[in-house]
Design brief:
Blueprint lengths: L1 E5 L51 E5 L1 E5 L6 E12 L2 E11 L4 E12 L2 E11 L4 E10 L10 E11 L2 E10 L8 E11 L3 E5 L2 E4 L2 E5 L2 E5 L8 E2 L3 E5 L3 E11 L4 E10 L4 E10 L5 E10 L16 E11 L5 E9 L2 H7 L3 H5 L2 E12 L2 E14 L2 E19 L9 E17 L2 H6 L12 E16 L2 E14 L2 E2 L6 E2 L3 E13 L3 E6 L5 E17 L19 E13 L4
Amino acid sequence: MLCLTARSTHAQQPNPVDRQVTNPITDTPNVNPLTEDQLLRPRVPTSAVTAGQSTEELDLRADKQSATGPEEARIVVAEGNVDARIGVYRLQADKVTLYRASNRIVAEGNVVFDQGEQRITGSRAEWNYATKLGYFINSTGFTNQTQDGTVIYFTADSVEKVSVDKIIVINAELTACEDSVPKWSFKTRRAEIKIGDRVRFKNPSFRIKNIPVAWLPFGSISLKRRDRASGFLTPTFSGSGNKGFRLSSAYYQTLGRSADVTIRNDIYTARGVGVGADVRTRANSRSFLNFGFYSVRDRMFGDDESPENPDQGGSSFYMDGVHYFPNGFLAAADVNVTSNLAFRQVFSDSIQQTISPEERSQVFINKNFAEFSFNFLARTQVTSIPNARIRTRQLPSISLDKRPTILKFFEKLPLYFSLETSLEGVSRKETVEDIDLFRLQGFGEPIISPSIVQRLDFHPNFSLPLNFAGWSVTLMGGVRGTYYSNSLVPDTRLVTSRDFIRGYGEFELDVRPPALARNFHHRDGRFFFSHLIEPYVTYRKIEGITNFDRIIRFDHTDAIADTNEIEFGITNRFFTRRS
């Protein structure tokens, strides 16, 4: 069916794409229509379209219209703010010529074509409203919006719509930047855009600020609603003084909706080849598990292996994950295993892994109920220092803690009680490269404990917070007893099977006077920021440790000595308001 009407127009707005037409149509015609909606004239029946074509009706409106020829082959010329709509399609232009016999529209001047979230503009267009195919000259446009909000803008000498969801752009430039000079773009002779799928192009040049920086054999940009799509990632290039030129490539593969894997490869022109893989999984919105490996075969290129040029290749494995169980349990894993320190220092991309002497792997399980917390820990830590490698383990560590709760039988006294208990199997092993140097440095014999040293810890604590006249005073006191199934011989540092108990008492007094605060304002009276000054004084005393030199140091629990100290300081805090 065909309906012809005329209407007036409102002021027009600029087009968002880079190549603007002389008098562009409004940016959001569906939100800000050119004219107010009017009642349509009764539609006049037209001849049926051929099989396979659309049976929707075309609504054509303009400031002025004229028609010539017989009914079945009528030619309609519409001028002035022409607006043609059929289904989800909309075409706007200064002038439109409609050929009813062939279901063809020829649009001229400030042409804007909309199909859902996709837009094409041009100076001239020819479109078949039955087959929905056509072409546009001197075009600009943008694609549908992806899940993360990305929109691909393009300019082209011509655009051909070859199917309902596919267009071909010739001599085109594509970008996701809205700047007049895009930060990055691809320029290509021919590109294929499939709505809701992806943009594909061959032999594109990659540009930064419109300056060519790289030429690629092919490329693609995803337009899918989902934020992940399989494919090859953009290669990266870099250089290093001792590894030579580095070429990195990767392939990304989705594994359903909740997992993916990235397979990567590195070529070091002065050293060798590295391969790796990274897997990511998501069980729900809060739970995840990531793991992967990386391995390098060194001395394949460049200098041969020698004392001056050692083989520093190796492998590494990592795992990082958190899982929340329905019954309230929480499991977490943080695993990092490297074959040797030299490999980590030479081939790691993380500055933290390069400079850190520690490598830690741990698995943690937690369950909180009422005022108690149950924890399970399995942990291995390796510390590398010159001439020595120290490995400590907790396999396993089971603890039951009670958070501070008020003792109800003291009605008027805010006395709180907390408790920390643990049952652990711990070990320590020191591996030394030069034993004579190690002894010369005063360390004695390397410590090599049994694979499991029993450590039982019991630590009750009481605290009493008092507040008066703006002052805050907190008194804390407690005792601690720790059982060890093995101990050190103080003179030789040899581990013996002689057990012992370490016990001590502790006291702490924390005094915090009233804080000082001031609000600062702009000259016009608007709030600027607040400055808060909080002084404090803390006194600590630990007494009763008489066997410190017999304790094997596994972690911070064992590195406690008699203490008598005062700590004081001032804390400055600054607060601003978010606009």
